[in-house]
Amino acid sequence: MPPKAGSHGPPRHMSMLKPAADPRAARWLTGTLFAILVVAGWGPGFGWGLWLDETFTAWQVDAGWRAIASTKLVNPGQSALFAYLEAPFFFPHPGVMEVALRVPALAGALLSCLFLYRLAESQVGKGAGVLASIVFVGSPAVVEYVSQARPYTLAMAACLASLWGLLRWLETGARRHGWLFSISVASILYLHLLFVLFLPVLGIVVFQRARRAPPLPWRNLAVWLAVAASLLLPLFPLARSFARQSAGLSDVSQAPLPDLARGTVATLPGLILLALVAVAILSFRARRPVFDALRAPETAPTVRLLLFWLLVPPLALAAISYIVGQDVMLTRYFFYTAAAQGLMVALLLRDFPPKFARLTLFAGFLLLAVLNLAHRSVADGPDSWRAPIRALRALDPEGAAPVFLQAGHPMSNAMDWEGGIAAHSFLYSQLSAYPIPNRVYPLPYGLDEVAQSYVRHLADGELSRAPLIFFAGIRDLPIERWVCSFFESRGYTCRDAVATGLSLLVMRRPG
């Protein structure tokens, strides 16, 4: 069909379908730019020291294959499935451990990119997969979590696989797609409980499909949902354990509304702004409206799905934060919205000349990747536990000085933190990742009368003649400041031996 009078250029998708002058050269260029984007953006963080949540992973797999499930019962907030996937990659050697433990996260990011490419090609249009993949690979959220020994990228891969499987099953009715849908849905909850908020996105797909002909095969859909539910049966005892241990353990105060409001705005970060700027530039060059791609009736279901996907999960987390009185609106808990951002950008750019659109996106994200490489490759992670442990070993190579170690969990004040180190509790998972020969004394996360009495008792007793004492913990919290001032009142000098990130206080008695 010829273009309408007064329209600009070829019909919709024609520019995307037009073959390049040299397809092989175009593929080589695209592959090379992707490789640069991956290496420069993803690479630097793999060598960083483990931050607190990553030391949980080391703590789980350090217990051994047989103990992971029972360890999970002690701390139900951690994924036993992810720990089993991590176990073959645990090598307790500094420098090797950090990189090896992050290999599963890299695999999850690559799987996510694969399913995102397929979703973009099928739901947005041919050629859109490359655009969505560029945005995904260069996304600041992906750059952050691809180099963390945590289940976020694998959970995202499960989310995208479930969406792909559902869409393909609705289209073809093939059993392999039904199995992919069921197994992926179950895997989401096994990998991270809070990623359950992605399931309403699948519900929107079913709702939109039910409004169109032919009739939706509800009976067959119920079968695949039953398969997913049966795969989740082992989680029910863990859910009860999680509910029991969560009750009364958290003393985190309710986050104020302005913080949650800022978090809501953060769900559409500078990534979307960058994409809109790119769209505006392309629109000016091509002399066509910026949002032409969003006006076509055939794109309306995709637009509704993406808007729901972008906004509803983080808003649900905001509501949960107020209900439970604890701020759980953290970007890692709605990390899967990074894929929706990639699809939205691909939808906006799908009608523009593919070569120009790709190179424009590559230019923007390669600049971010190079800046990331320059910044992240010269320093350790901002919350790396390796930094204070390294400084401690340098200052006390024989491991003779006592060390106060602060728990990283606010819930520790309501638990048996005094016996946590002896019990190999997750409260002090830092010691699994970075063991030290020193005598270690536990401290809780928050300052209270019990913690103060504990420190006073030690200072009056077995530590009364200690010439050197360390405190390793989180910078600028009340307990860190109190410990420093307390030992200064006992005649010690107190200084921080770590410039940034976590704190390592060195308390030395003069002479």
Task: Please explain how this structure is put together.
This protein has about 500 residues and is mainly alpha-helical. It folds into 2 domains: about 35-240 and about 255-375, no CATH class; about 385-510. Helix content is about 60%, strand content about 5%. The chain is built from 24 helices and 5 strands. Helix 7 (about 105-125) runs parallel beside helix 19 and helix 10 packs parallel to helix 12 (about 200-210). The radius of gyration is 26 Å and the shape is globular. The chain starts with 13 loop residues before the first helix and ends with a strand. About 40% of the residues are buried. Mean pLDDT is about 85; it is low at about 1-20, about 250-260 and about 260-270.
**Which structural class fits the helix and strand makeup?**
mainly alpha
Helical region count? 24
Strand content: under 5%
Could you tell me the number of beta strands?
Answer: 5
Order of helices and strands: HHHHHHHHHHHHHHHHHHHHHEHEHEHEE
Please give the radius of gyration in angstroms.
26 Å
| Basic shape | globular
Poorly predicted regions: 1-20, 248-260, 262-268
- Oligomeric form: single chain
* First-last Cα distance: 91 Å
Strand order of the largest sheet: 2-1-3-5-4
User: In total, how many domains does the architecture comprise?
Assistant: 2
Give a short account of the largest sheet. 5 strands, mixed
